[in-house]
Structures are given as C-alpha cells and as structure tokens.
Amino acid sequence: MEKQLTLSEKARFDAKIPKAQKQLFEYAASLGGFRTLTDFIMNAVQEKANAIIEEHNTILASEKDREIFFDALMNPPGPNQKLRDTAQRYKIFMQENK
Q: I need a surface site. Which of 16, 28, 92, 94 has the fewest CB within 10 A?
C-alpha cells in the first residue's frame, strides 16, 4: 500500500531540537542499526503515524459496531418464519408431553 516517492515528489522537513535530544536520538539510531539519524527519525515517525491511524480506525469501527448493536437492541427485528415454525412445533411438543 505504501507508495515509493520519486525525488521530485519528496518534501523537506526541518526541525530545531536541543543538542542533548539530538545526541540521544543519534545514540538510539546507532543502537538500532540505522544508517543515519534521518533514517531513524523517519522510521520512528512512520511507526507512530501508523499506530495513531490504526487506533483512530479502530475507534471508528468500534463506534460503528456500538451503533449497530444498540440499534438492534432498540429496534429488534420480528421473528422470522423459521423461528415461528420452531415455536409452533415446541407448543405442539409440550401439549403432547403433558
């Protein structure tokens, strides 16, 4: 699903951060086996973005599920023919086995 960007489609992102924070990020990048700090940051940001989007989509799906559930509770469908037939057979069975 992820689209590869060509050089003409790329955009620049600059950020000023405290020196201590940059050193921390560089250390983490080296421990993580990343080639560059940029690779580390892009990977971390991509993972976080994906997690946030997944959580958002899960919340939306669960809200929709809740709506469907409560709608079914508040507006239950009537019994279908199969259920009515089964109820009738049960009544007959109960009368025969008194």
A: 16
The Cα–Cα gap between 41 and 5 comes to 17
| Residue 11 backbone dihedrals phi, psi, to 5 degrees | -125, 155
**65: Cβ contacts below 8 Å, ≥ 6 apart:** none
pLDDT of 42 > 70? The answer is yes
Residue whose pair of structure tokens reads 């509770």 in the numeric block? 73
Q: Are 25 and 37 in contact (CB under 8 A)?
A: yes
pLDDT at 7 over 70: no
